[in-house]
Amino acid sequence: MRARPVRAPRTSAVTRLVEAARRAWPRVPRAAVWVLVAVALVIGGTLLTVGRADGDDETVRPEAARAVSDLPAPAPQWRLESFLDAVVEVPASWGYAPAPASDWCAATEQPRVFPEQPYVNTRGPGAPVLMIACPPTGAAPDLHGGDVPREHWAPHVWFAATPAAGGVEEVPDGRVSTEGWTRLVRTVGSAKVFVLTDDAHLGEAERIIASARQSAVDQHGCAASSPIQAGRFVSPPAPFDLARLDTVDSVAVCHYDLSRPVGTPGLLASHELGGAGATALLAAIQAAPVGGGPDTPDTCVTERWGDTGIVLRLTADGSSREAYVYYDWCFGNGIDDGTTRRALTPENCGPLWSGRVVVWSGSGAPFAACDPAAVSGKA
Question: What are the transmembrane regions (predicted)?
């Protein structure tokens, strides 16, 4: 996986967060602006763009509605997962979980619990790994990665960008097996798709790898590359007024890596809200205070803008509009439709985080707005 530096508290403080992060957002003191979530959380957070459009990027798409997927529907009891410009089918029964990493032995009060059933890994780029030395297993080949003991292995799917960044060794395509376990690897577009499986799930794993395909638009209408990747809190290139939307049929939540340039694939994951969920989200956004935030601009540097952002594709009567979400910096947070900035609130934050759409680091203020009970330790 692509390694990126993660701003973190001291090791002792981070270690204490490992188990706490399973249940809630950690409390973030003013001096420690960055919150690190050591496991994937399905947590509250509806966020849309903030900041002003700079108007200088000629590569932006003039119409949000142009992102239309031509992917075929998955087979019954299967679903689609996307990363960058790759899309694969996985069994619907495979859940979501963070895979154990090289810090698998970290625990404060009780042993850590890792998934035992097949799953899709929610650890994406930027996920923190504690700098501790777990006992080496000496096992080879290390099909899982991170020198994780085999008793913690379970069949799962994960993704990585290719070519690998930061000197990370590239894993070659193909099949490698050892002691009843097999790792399948296939390059598709800008992504590598990995499946680790035991013999009992080998047929499903082979089908997953065979299904991988390249696509400019994923199953939820999320483009592989988005103008949001320009960073600097850019606003949507096609402004509209959320307050004037009477209804919405669906809302696609498209999660992007802002470190990847516009024009290159940056989509990390996506999911979609429909029906009552989409309607409730629209209402919560419209009810949010105008002005953006919450922000604490004196707690971080001003020449940065966070690592990830979200594009919300709101679709009604076949027409789609995009609003941007910024949430992991000390300023520029909020919901931006290109016309008005709206603040993040508990009511408009909850629906965004689901499946592989997770957040690993960021400023404490927007987290507190998204789930104040969790941040205060009462969740």
Answer: 31-51
